[in-house]
Design brief:
This protein has 534 residues and is an all-alpha fold. Helix content is 81%, strand content 0%.
Length: 534
């Protein structure tokens, strides 16, 4: 505002400006143009100004006067980027001289001024245009919109000022009320609020002084520094607050430097937890202090690093113990946790090698135990040769195993015993076979032909037993035919549901032909059905 008033004073005086021509002929042209402009003869003034401009093409003040003449004549349209509209700032009190044909150009100038937040001059132009051209609705609307805008801005400043006033932030409140006063210079309410704020400021200043003196007397430098800083922010021109704040700041900086030095010493001695605790306390006295924050972050980082190192050492010891005790699942988990701590790669590689060796040994042990178990099952099933092969494989895995040695000896003894049994059984078989061939069936039946469990021997026993049955029943083609007829009759009874009669017929079949396999199967089947029916 002050800048505009100064420009107006210079403009109305048409006094020399910076860069004004010193050439006497040029001055004559400018003076002549001024006379023409005062008589509203702008076309003639343009001629004189053109002559003056020819003598000094770079003179800005001549360009401004020529632009004013063009506007008066209605020949000039404000460009979109018009920044100052110098002619109206200089000659705003002679709006009445603007010709109607230049109103649109003047309207654009006012819009530019509004965009530049030069509301006072813009409002005067809009008001003038609205009065002089009432039929131009856009002029009146622009004037009303600007007045509403100014009213809203003024009210906004007042509301914000009231909030600051309630908060006790009197400097901010005073700033907002004065900003509102710019839009409403004669508003009595604003004037009264400004006086109220100023009186509150005086009271607050004295309050700050009293509180500051009290806390200084009590030796509470931290609280004194806080009060002095707040007082200085509220009253930056008050020397007492500035001197007190500077003094306390110097003392606080000395204490801060001492605290930081002590904390660094603690960190150098690896007492990171103590250093962190001291720095957290210091941060309460020096909130947001970059040096404290930075050192606190360093102490925390080193504390975390030391914790990781300690954790890594603990995990490494537990891992070694787990490997020694053969606990692979625990060792695997501990190894993963050890890797997560970022421990040294050599230590991890060594532990991985030990764990892999443990797993390999345990796998060999499991294979050995599985092989022994397989040998036990084979021995139980009488498969001594296969059991011996499994035990020999187990001995290859663990040559010193007493269990494997004992089982292998047992297998060998069983094999020798089995050979003896088979030899004795074959002698019995040969004896029974000789009786059958001699026709001495009853003598053959008395021979011990029980099964031994050896496949080959048992097969030979079965063959002799079959020979005895065949000889005993003296099978003939007639008997075989009769047996087959009885078998089919049993099938018929079975299909009719007469299971008992079917069973009787099939039993007769087996008497005629004990080796009739189909009759044997049907007898077993029908016996099961009869048992379920009972």
């Amino acid at each position: 505002m002050m800048r505009i008033l100064v420009i107006l004073l210079f403009a109305f005086a048409w006094g020399p400006v910076v860069g004004a021509p010193v050439n006497s002929e040029q001055a004559k042209y400018i003076q002549s143009a001024q006379d023409y402009m005062q008589r509203s003869q702008y076309q003639k003034a343009l001629v004189q100004l053109s002559k003056a401009r020819a003598l000094s093409p770079t003179e800005v003040s001549i360009d401004e006067k020529m632009r004013e003449c063009h506007v008066r004549l209605g020949n000039w349209v404000s460009p979109e980027d018009a920044a100052t509209s110098s002619w109206i700032e200089v000659d705003k009190l002679r709006l009445a001289d603007v010709q109607p044909r230049a109103f649109d150009s003047l309207f654009q100038v006012a819009k530019t001024l509004e965009n530049r937040e030069n509301y006072e001059i813009a409002e005067r132009i809009f008001s003038h245009l609205a009065n002089k051209a009432p039929t131009k609705k856009e002029y009146g609307k622009a004037y009303q919109d600007l007045r509403l805008k100014v009213e809203l801005m003024s009210q906004n400043h007042i509301e914000v000022g009231e909030v600051f006033l309630k908060q006790g932030r009197f400097a901010k409140a005073l700033e907002e009320f004065k900003a509102a006063l710019f839009f409403k210079p004669d508003d009595p309410y604003l004037q009264s609020r400004i006086k109220l704020v100023e009186s509150r400021q005086l009271e607050l200043r004295e309050t700050y002084k009293g509180r500051l003196a009290k806390v200084l007397a009590e030796g509470d430098r931290d609280q004194a520094a806080v009060i002095a800083e707040r007082a200085f922010r509220e009253f930056p021109s008050e020397k007492f607050f500035r001197r007190t704040l500077d003094s306390l700041t110097t003392l606080r900086l000395e204490m801060l430097a001492k605290t930081l030095e002590e904390c660094r010493a603690l960190m150098d001695s690896s007492q990171f937890a103590s250093a962190e605790s001291r720095l957290r306390e210091a941060l309460l006295s020096y909130p947001g202090e970059p040096q404290v924050v930075d050192l606190l972050q360093q102490s925390r980082a080193k504390l975390e690093s030391s914790k990781k190192v300690a954790l890594a050492d603990s995990l490494s010891k537990e891992l070694t113990q787990a490997i020694e005790t053969g606990n692979t699942s625990l060792a695997t988990s501990l190894l993963q946790n050890l890797k997560a701590t970022g421990a040294a790669g050599d230590d991890i590689a060594q532990k991985e090698k030990g764990l892999d060796s443990l797993k390999s040994r345990l796998q060999v042990q499991r294979d050995f135990e599985n092989t022994l178990e397989k040998a036990r099952r084979l021995m139980k099933d009488g498969q001594l040769a296969e059991a011996q092969a499994a035990l020999e494989a187990a001995m290859g895995m663990n040559p010193k195993s007493p269990v494997a040695k004992q089982m292998l000896e047992d297998v060998k003894r069983e094999e020798a015993k089995q050979v003896e049994t088979e030899d004795a059984k074959r002698k019995e078989i040969q004896k029974a076979d000789a009786f059958v061939k001699a026709g001495q069936i009853q003598s053959a039946k008395k021979v011990d032909l029980s099964l031994t469990g050896a496949q080959q021997v048992d097969q030979e026993v079965k063959q002799v037993q079959r020979a005895i049955r065949e000889a005993e029943y003296a099978r003939t083609p007639e008997n075989d035919k009769k047996a087959q007829d009885l078998f089919f009759e049993g099938i018929g009874s079975y299909r009719l549901g007469d299971y008992q009669e079917a069973l009787e017929k099939w039993n007769k079949v087996l008497k005629l032909n004990p080796d009739h396999e189909q009759a044997q199967k049907y007898v077993a089947n029908v016996k099961q059905k009869l048992a379920r029916m009972q």
